[in-house]
Each structure stands twice: as C-alpha cells, then as structure tokens.
C-alpha cells in the first residue's frame, strides 16, 4: 500500500483530496476562530469587572453545527462536500436560496492545490507533509487577517514552534538556521515597528506580523527572510497604491500586511532558493 501511495501521481491525487477537505475545515477556522477569541475576551473583561455574562451559545470549532447564516437552517453532510456541493447547489443555500460566498470554494480549492503542489514538488515524505501544514496555516491566517486585521496567536505561535520541531532533523534547513530565522524574523519587524512609531507616533503594523515572520523564519531559515520581506513589502506597496488610486481607499485606513507575508512565505517555500540564487547571480 505504501509503495502505491508513494508513487508521484497517487500521492498528488491523495494530497489534492486531503487538501480540499482541509480547505473546508479552514473555512470553519476562518469564520469561527475570531468569534471564539472575541467571546473569550468578553468573558475575561467581565471577570475583571466582577460581572457575569448572560449564558449564551458557546462557539467552538465543532459547535454549533454549521448552518446557513441567512435562514439558520443546518447544513446537511452532503452539502459540505468540498467544491462539489457548491456546484450542485448553484452557489446558493438549499433552503432559502441565499447566495453562498464564493470565497468558500476558493479556500477549499487553494487548500487542495497547495497540498497537491507540495506533494509534487517535494515527493513522498516528511518535507511534503510539513509543506502542506505550512501552506494551510498561511491560508487560514491570510483570510482571517483580511477579515479582521488580526493574526491570532492560536495559529502563529504553534506554527512557529512546529517549524522549529520540524527542522530538528533538518527537513528544510538546519536547526540553528531555523532558530536564527525565528529570532531574526521577529526582531526585524519589531524594529521597524518601533522605528516607525518613534518617528511618526503611529503604529505601522501589529505584533501578529512579527510572530508570522518569526514562524516563516522557523520553517524556512534566516536566509529566506530578506526575500520574504522584500517581496511582501513590494507587493503590499503596489496593492496599497492601486487601492488608493482606483478604489479610493483612504490613506489612513489600515491595510493588513499578513496576507503579503503569507504569500511571500509560500513563494519562498517552493521557489525561494532558486530565486535568491538567480538574484545574487545577477551581480
């Protein structure tokens, strides 16, 4: 069985199917985790004030059961099949016919495609498995940041520690390089944050960005950090200018930086080394 699964085509197909299912779960994480954190913050604030919050429905990743946000009808199991259910339902709720956001199948598809490409790129083994986990975590963080401008510690910190553990055997980089990458990733953006704040009196980014870059450094090592920082900054600047010019996005309205860090981290995972070597070779 392992010999069959480890073959390139079966492994890629299995990774694709698994990634589609994980993508469906990521939609739950993206939607519910911020609500869970908000619920926890309210409970902690009430406890500090000596108050008791009224009993309500607790939100977790497994409860309550998934349901239509418009009519509240529970979603049947067959309506949760990645991509296929969306196509069969025509992108609408089976009960009230309200439109289902297209982002749900997009996240599922991205979860599947990144897993399949990781399987094809790395082949059967631990590097492919680690790359899949890395990609899925970055996908969740990207969409949570787009929605809430938050990068939850519940994802960034486990991702950081998992990256260090993963590189104990040097799957991507050596452990010393991973440790230096984690420390450097955090300190670089921390320094930029304080330099910007001392200069302008404003906060240019959040602490979640520091932790995300530290996690990327833990997985990919410190040598990939210059590429990640330059690529994310360049793309972020271009997108910011386009939003201001064409979408009339206010200059004082914050733009989440996490998606650009995550995107650059994904590029660095698969193509960072050859791109860096090509860039250095041009000199």
Write the layout of secondary structure elements.
Layout (H helix, E strand, L loop, with lengths): L1 H4 L2 H41 L35 H5 L14 H20 L3 H23 L4 H14 L8 H26 L6 H14 L4 H22 L11 H24 L2
How would you portray this structure in words?
α2 packs across α4 (103-122) and α6 runs antiparallel to α7. This protein is globular. With 283 residues, the chain is mostly helical. The chain has helices spanning 2-5, 8-48, 84-88, 103-122, 126-148, 153-166, 175-200, 207-220, 225-246, 258-281. The mean pLDDT is 88. It is built from 10 helices and no strands.
Largest sheet: none
Quick one: how many beta strands?
A: 0
Pattern of helices and strands: HHHHHHHHHH
Task: Determine the structural class based on helices, strands and strand pairing.
Answer: mainly alpha
Report the C-alpha radius of gyration, rounded: 21 Å
Low-confidence stretches: none
Overall average pLDDT:
88
Strand content: under 5%
Give the CA-based shape: globular
**Terminal-residue CA separation:** 49 Å
**Helicity level:** 55-70%
Keywords:
mainly alpha, 10 helices, globular
Quick rundown:
The protein has 283 residues and is mostly helical. The protein contains 10 helices and no strands.
């Amino acid at each position: 069985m392992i010999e069959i699964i480890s073959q390139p085509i079966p492994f890629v197909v299995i990774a694709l199917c698994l990634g589609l299912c994980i993508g469906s779960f990521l939609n739950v994480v993206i939607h519910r985790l911020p609500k869970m954190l908000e619920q926890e913050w309210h409970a902690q604030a009430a406890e500090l004030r000596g108050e008791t919050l009224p009993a309500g429905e607790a939100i977790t990743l497994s409860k309550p059961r998934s349901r239509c946000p418009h009519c509240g009808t529970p979603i049947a199991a067959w309506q949760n099949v990645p991509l296929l259910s969306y196509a069969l339902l025509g992108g609408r709720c089976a009960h009230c016919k309200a439109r289902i956001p297209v982002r749900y199948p997009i996240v599922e598809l991205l979860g599947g495609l990144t897993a399949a490409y990781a399987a094809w790129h790395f082949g059967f083994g631990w590097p492919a498995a680690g790359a899949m986990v890395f990609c899925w975590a970055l996908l969740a963080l990207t969409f949570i940041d787009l929605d809430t401008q938050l990068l939850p510690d519940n994802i960034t910190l486990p991702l950081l520690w998992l990256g260090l553990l993963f590189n104990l055997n040097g799957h991507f980089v050596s452990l010393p390089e991973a440790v230096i990458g984690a420390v450097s990733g955090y300190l670089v953006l921390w320094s930029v944050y304080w330099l910007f704040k001392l200069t302008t009196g404003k906060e240019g980014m959040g602490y979640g960005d520091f932790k995300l870059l530290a996690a990327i450094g833990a997985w990919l090592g410190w040598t990939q950090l210059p590429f990640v920082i330059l690529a994310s900054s360049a793309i972020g600047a271009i997108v910011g200018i386009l939003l201001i010019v064409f979408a009339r996005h206010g200059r004082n309205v914050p733009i989440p930086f996490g998606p650009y860090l995550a995107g650059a981290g994904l590029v660095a995972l698969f193509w960072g080394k050859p791109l860096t070597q090509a860039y250095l070779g041009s000199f």
